[in-house]
Amino acid sequence: MRIPAHSVCTAIRDDIVAGVHERGSRLTEELLARRYGVSRVPVREALRTLEAEGFVVTRRHAGACVAEPTEEEAADLLEMRVLLEPLGASRAAQRRTEAHLKVLRGLVRLGQERARRGNSEDLRSLGGWFHETLAQACGSPALTSVLTQLRHKIAWMYAVEAPTDPVGSWTEHGAIVDAVARGDSERARALTALHAERASSAHRLRFSSGGDRVRKAQHPVNTPSLRH
Q1: How much is the pTM?
Q2: What digits encode the pLDDT tens for the residues 94-128?
Q3: Which of 90, 111, 183, 199 qualifies as a FRET site for 210, CA 20 to 30 Å off?
Q4: What is the pLDDT of residue 2?
Q5: What average pLDDT does range 182-190 have in this prediction?
Q6: Among candidate residues 64, 226, 54, 82, the one with its CA nearest the CA of residue 153
């Protein structure tokens, strides 16, 4: 069975974000193919995609390497998020489907429940799903793609502190969904802008001091674990 390049790309990206492939390290096709249990062809395609996204750079005499973004580039990402997420929410208020609303409302219910229980790990995952769904609801593949890449890069460059008031944070999520459901694009934009600005203050650069933080691989070498 041929493993799609986009699945290999997801696996490599996730491991870059997790710190398995450290900043500046070489990414050789042969070793990556062996690690993920695929041929070199999907690895080569995945590296081209990751280079276009900014996770990989090609260096003379070294080949593909994990990029090493500067603190200024990292700060730009947070500023872009504060500008673009409100736009996405505004568009979602105009273009969302009932299916999007159902998922968003379900995530808010779960988030509020977990927040009251103080389960921070569940909240992190639920928050990611919430913003991913909101981005998909904007009805613009181009904007959804940009917002998705922003989330990946921010997760790579920043550690995020748990919110001091998780219940309040999920109340904000609920208010955004209410505005989206009513088709109130201006309120959805304003609420999301405020939420994004508050969230940005909880981000701390991973590489500002003490080097990279490295976590365990998100994917084992065998391919059945590759996400599609």
Answers
A1: 0.81
A2: 999 999 999 999 999 999 999 998 877 788 889 99
A3: 199
A4: 60
A5: 98
A6: 54
Tokens describing residue 143 = 């904007």
One-letter amino acid for residue 59 of the chain: R
Supply the pLDDT for residue 208.
Answer: 65
Q: What's the residue count for the chain?
A: 228
pLDDT in tens, 172-183: 999 999 999 999
For 217-220, the CB contacts below 8 A with 24+ separation are 217/15, 217/18, 217/20, 218/11, 218/14, 218/15, 218/17, 218/18, 218/20, 219/11, 219/14, 219/15, 219/36
Cα atoms in the 13 Å half-sphere on the side-chain side of 172: 20
pLDDT digits (tens, 9 = 90+) for 26-73: 999 999 999 999 999 999 999 999 999 999 999 988 899 999 999 999
Cβ atoms of 70 and 107 closer than 8 Å:
no
Q: What angle do CA 133, 175, 84 make, to 5 degrees?
A: 50
What gap in Å lies between CA 51 and CA 188, rounded to an integer?
33
Residues 6+ positions from 132 with CB-CB distance below 8 Å? 148, 151
